[in-house]
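<goal> How does this chain fold?
<sample>
Here is the protein in question

***
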Amino acid sequence: MLKIKIFYENNDFNYEIDKLTGVFFPNYRLESIKGSYDGSEPSFIVVSRTDGSVSVRVCVNDFCEESEKQLDPGDDAELEAALLLFSLLTKATGVTPPWGVLTGVRPIKLFRRLTQEGGQEYAVRRFTDVFRVSPEKTALAAETEKNEGEILKKTTPLSFSLYISVPFCPSRCSYCSFVSASTERTKHLIEPYTQLLCRELEATADIASRLGLRLESVYMGGGTPTTLDADQLSRVLRTVRRRFDMSGCREFTVEAGRPDTITSQKLLAMKSAAVDRISINPQTLNDEVLKLVGRRHTAADIFDCFAEARECGFDHINMDLIAGLPGDTSSGFEKTLDGITDLSPESITIHTLSMKRASRLTQEGLMINRQEAEEAAKMLSYADKKLHACGYAPYYLYRQSRMVGNLENTGWSKPGKEGYYNVFIMDETQTILACGAGAVTKLSAGMSEIERIFNYKYPYEYIDRFDELIARKEGIERFYDKFR
């Protein structure tokens, strides 16, 4: 693998600088070194700071150039170094990342904070003029923040959402990096897991009741929750309805996900438990691409499953698509999106392929290259125009590392059909109580301080160490005791 050494002289800017360099060189191994350039590598970056200036030197491939910025009082030296690096790497590679120097997961939180500081025009100027975000992505951020804000107005410090993890899938998709276990290998764990998950939900409900917390949304994800059979699924959902106060719950979502796991019995089990939002996730309607990424269903299965869900009475269906899948093209993606919008689901989430290191695609050596990045950008541009034209609006957005084209994931919905949980988890101002293997409780209560309680990652750990996991939940009450 190609390598770039990054030397940091008299500064600790390595976190943001490393991430920004990775945007331009996603297939390179980056090595951070505190100290001066030692002449050991032909490809290197040097970031230097003095009392009155910052400078950046980039020598990569046939490009070698240096730039310096004199610091004025109040300047953010780390940001100025990042801006110098951005300009040099744009010149060196011919690539201009659409999100500029922003590398974080939650650009909408930043846009909201800037709006609160100086109004929307101020936030727009900061994004475009300072952070070098493209006008198109800035406009997307502004619209998304406005729609998110309407949802967040109704939440309170005692509000919380419930996340339920089912870490099983019928097979592992090649792009997936989540902790999920194939049912071919772990089928024997599903029933004991279900029993303990119900027990954890009961314990969590008791804590929420003692603290006087108000449940606003429930999201059952994974993995693929519909790998549970109809009886197991029903038991989990009934436990939620029986043990939690649902009187203030605005949304109950089950990520049904893969059509090869959805049956009429499972749909009816969800409906009888008053689940009011489900996801049916095609990713693409191209059968060849589905095979390439390890999905064991066809486009026809998607349409059949969607029709069956409508027949069962579901009037809020979300569908996920992925831009930049191996073997897909911008024209293929357009056909997929046209086919999905013809179904008129209430919400559509457009993800961009993220080449996580734990995914099979990355382990098999697939690289992020410029052509795929340009194709993915075309896909998202088409989605923006198409979805607006069909009456959808963006209501939440987040980014991941190693995304093709350094792009974004965006949730689109028809008016009044936003996914509340998606907004709450991205904004991080509402507590998320999480149950199941790999789940992470995030304690916020509207405070700037966030505490996390981690469940064991793998189903066998969850089962074997369940009592220890339950004991960790005492941290929920300790957290709220601080604010009483």
Residues 183-211 form the longest helix (29 residues). The CA atoms of residues 333 and 379 lie 6 Å apart. The radius of gyration is 23 Å.
